[in-house]
Structures are given as C-alpha cells and as structure tokens.
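Let's practice the habit of predicting before peeking. Look at the sequence and jot down your guess about where helices and strands might fall. Then scroll down.
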Amino acid sequence: MSPAAESDQPVRIVVIDDDPKNLKMVNFTLSNGELEIHTASDPRIGLDMITQLRPQIVLIDLILPGIGGMELLQQIVQLERGIAVILMTGYYSAESAREAIKMGATDYFPKPFSPKKLRERIELIVEDAKRRQRSSTMDGIAEKQRETVREM
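Done guessing? Here is the structure:
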C-alpha cells in the first residue's frame, strides 16, 4: 500500500456504552466520513472489537455492567498503549478523573457533554493519530531505503 493510501484510511473509533441513546448520540456527533465508528453496548463485545479492529480511539462509559470502565481502561492500555482512551461518565469526580488519567486515559468527559467539545477533542486526537501514522510510514520507507543502500 502506498503511503498516500495509508494516510487516507479512516481513523477507527470504538464506543462502549450500555445506554443505546448515548451510542446513537456519539455516532451521530462524530459521523463525518473520515471516521470508522463501531459501537458496543456490552463491554466484553467492545473489548473483542478493540482486539480485532485495533482502533486509534476508544470512548468508554465509566459505569458498565460486568466490567467497569476503569478495569476496561486497564485492559486496553495493556493491550495497546497507543490507543487514545476517553472515559465518559454521568458520575464525575475529580478523584476518578485523576485516577483515569494516571491509568492511561487520554481524557475524561462528564455526561452530558457538549457534542461540539467532543468533536473538537476527537479532531485533535485524529490529527495526532494521522501524524503518527505518517511518521510510522515514513520510518518504514526510510528503513527500506537504508536496507537497499546496504545491499549495494
């Protein structure tokens, strides 16, 4: 695949929330053609999606049935440190926000949140993900060029 084609790939997002209204709202808010959005109302299914899809961004509700959002955050960070994880909660506390950030969350949004603020935050993360993707692609090209020069 050419570097141009790689950078044109949509950024994948997985949204995990047991409230179908929140899933619809996030999907509607972020649908813009540049993002590939996957949703799950069950945290175990969401974790399977993350394992299979390797998204660049994950949004998780803090309070979920079965696996809590903090536990899920920990599993995601162990799986892949490069995933930007945003926790969402209707039960905001400064203490849980600090804990989430310490554990590796990129951000922590109290519910209900402003669609505009969510879009803006996701756009910043998407730009960063694309920059990292381009950098990784360029690193791969540079390595192939070094190998070619060594073979000469």
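How did you do? The chain has a mean pLDDT of 84.
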